[in-house]
Every structure is written in structure tokens, then in C-alpha cells.
């Protein structure tokens, strides 16, 4: 198994970004959804990126964005991946990919029909995030789902030739349990925070578990 993708998401400040960028994570995430608690203004993120110059790939998280909205954010932030958390359709994904030429990851909420939902986006989505289904929330809840379902999602994405990241309720105390199911990637926000700020101790603990898991199966 190759080393998993690790996305440290929900960076809200220069300090947050400096901490996550100092890690061996592969991706850093920023939330550009105005009605959410971790929303960040793109011009600020642009300044942080210029100052820190992280080596990680940058992921922008959106819910049902317009092309104009994406253009504005990309003016400030050199995103590598667009992550969609809303009710976007296949045609909308194709439109976004055509407009910007960037990989697009689609969030699937774990529920009956989750695998069928992945199949809808076959050949269109460049990756998937599987998150918990929480009424009234699109993500960032810190609630985990039944990880026994992880191999089915992982294998379905593998068959499509794209990565699948697991999100929801991952923290240092349980990431080892999740890694036993060998997901291709993990997506963490609240689990690397202390008092709503990124915590270097939690980040290091997560990365240590990831490295130990890779070593144990390699």
C-alpha cells in the first residue's frame, strides 16, 4: 500500500497554516463557504500562502459554487484541487473542470446508496471524500460513521482509478483504528484542533500514527 493522502483541513489563520504546513501531510484545506464556522476570506489565504509557501497541495472546499465564485477565489489562491460538498451534478463538475482544468473531488455522505452515488460520478470526479451524514450539515461536524464501510468505498474508488479520503470524527485517539481499514486518504479538521485552533501536538500525533501504520504494512 502506498502512503496515504493526509489532508489537514479548516485552516483559519496564518498560525494554523504554518502548523499544518510544517507537517508531512500531503494536502492543506481551506473552507470558502461563507455560512460555515471555518470560512476564510480568499485574499487572506493568498497572503498566508505567499508568506509560508507550503509544499503541500492546496484544496479549496465549496458548496454549490458558481463559476464566478471559483474564479474570484482562484485569483487569490493557487488551488490544486477543488472539493465540492454540495448537491453538485455531473454536468456542473464537468463545467468546473472545463473552466479551470483542475482536479475536482466530490464529497459523498455515508448512507444507503453512498456507493451508487460514487458510481454516478464515475469518470468525472477525480477523487472522493466520504463523510458522515449529519442532518442539516454538509461537513465539518466531527462525527464519525461506521468505518467497517471504508473498504467498500476505498475499493469502489480504486476501481475508478481515483483516491478516496475518509472524513468525520478522526482524531489522534482513533486514527489508528481507521487506518486498520487501509483507506487511501484521511481528511481531518476538528481532530487537529484545540480550542478551535490547529494544535501542533495533535497534528504530530496524527502523522505519527500514519507513519507507524505505513511501516507496519510495508
Automatic annotation (TrEMBL):
GO molecular function ontology, one term from the record: phosphoribosylanthranilate isomerase activity
PANTHER family: N-(5'-PHOSPHORIBOSYL)ANTHRANILATE ISOMERASE
Catalytic reaction annotation: N-(5-phospho-beta-D-ribosyl)anthranilate = 1-(2-carboxyphenylamino)-1-deoxy-D-ribulose 5-phosphate
Classification via SUPFAM superfamilies: Ribulose-phoshate binding barrel (SSF51366)
Pathway: Amino-acid biosynthesis; L-tryptophan biosynthesis; L-tryptophan from chorismate: step 3/5
Domain of life: Bacteria
EC annotation from Swiss-Prot or TrEMBL: 5.3.1.24
CDD domains attached to this UniProt entry: PRAI
Gene source species: Halobacillus kuroshimensis
Name used for this protein in its record: N-(5'-phosphoribosyl)anthranilate isomerase
Family indicated by similarity: Belongs to the TrpF family.
Main EC class the enzyme belongs to: isomerase
Pfam families xref list: PRAI
Keyword list, A-Z: Amino-acid biosynthesis, Aromatic amino acid biosynthesis, Isomerase, Tryptophan biosynthesis
Domain N-(5'phosphoribosyl) anthranilate isomerase (PRAI): 7-208
Amino acid at each position: 500500500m502506498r502512503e496515504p493522502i493526509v489532508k489537514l483541513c479548516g485552516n483559519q489563520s496564518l498560525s494554523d497554516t504554518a502548523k499544518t504546513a510544517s507537517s508531512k501531510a500531503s494536502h492543506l484545506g481551506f473552507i470558502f463557504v461563507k455560512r460555515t464556522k471555518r470560512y476564510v476570506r480568499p485574499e487572506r489565504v493568498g497572503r498566508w500562502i505567499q508568506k509560508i509557501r507550503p509544499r503541500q497541495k492546496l484544496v479549496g472546499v465549496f458548496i454549490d459554487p458558481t463559476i464566478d465564485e471559483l474564479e474570484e477565489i482562484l485569483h487569490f489562491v493557487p488551488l490544486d484541487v477543488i472539493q465540492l460538498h454540495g448537491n453538485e451534478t455531473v454536468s456542473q463538475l464537468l463545467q468546473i473542470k472545463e473552466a479551470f482544468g483542475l482536479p475536482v473531488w466530490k464529497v459523498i455522505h455515508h448512507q444507503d446508496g453512498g456507493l451508487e452515488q460514487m458510481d454516478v460520478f464515475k469518470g468525472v470526479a477525480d477523487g472522493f471524500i466520504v463523510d458522515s451524514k449529519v442532518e442539516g450539515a454538509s461537513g465539518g461536524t466531527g462525527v464519525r460513521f461506521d468505518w467497517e464501510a471504508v473498504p467498500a468505498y476505498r475499493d469502489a474508488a480504486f476501481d475508478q482509478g481515483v483516491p478516496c479520503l475518509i472524513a468525520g470524527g478522526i482524531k489522534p485517539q482513533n486514527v489508528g483504528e481507521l487506518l486498520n481499514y487501509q483507506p487511501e486518504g484521511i481528511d481531518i479538521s476538528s481532530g487537529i484542533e484545540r480550542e478551535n485552533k490547529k494544535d501542533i501536538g495533535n497534528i504530530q500525533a496524527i502523522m505519527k500514527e500514519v507513519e507507524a501504520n505505513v511501516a507496519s504494512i510495508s
